[in-house]
Amino acid sequence: MTTTITVEGMTCGHCEQTVEEAIQGVSGVTDVTVDRAGEQASVDGGADSTALVEAVEDAGYTAHV
């Protein structure tokens, strides 16, 4: 299953990396692709969408499904 999360506040490649690492730390994530220009993260696996949003927000960005 793929979940798409809108992520606001990314301004550089480091931001993308930070969001990617935060999402990878969520249980059930098998793959993640972050696109700062599109303000989205595509997440594969069975992770809970609430946990994904919380991980991104804990990393300092605004997120919603």
Automatic annotation (TrEMBL):
It holds the Pfam family HMA. CDD domains: HMA. Residues 1-64 form the HMA domain. GO terms for molecular function: metal ion binding. InterPro entries: HMA_dom, HMA_dom_sf. SUPFAM superfamilies: HMA, heavy metal-associated domain. Signal peptide: none annotated. PROSITE patterns: HMA_2. This is Heavy-metal-associated domain-containing protein. It comes from Haladaptatus pallidirubidus. The lineage of its organism: Archaea, Methanobacteriati, Methanobacteriota, Stenosarchaea group, Halobacteria.
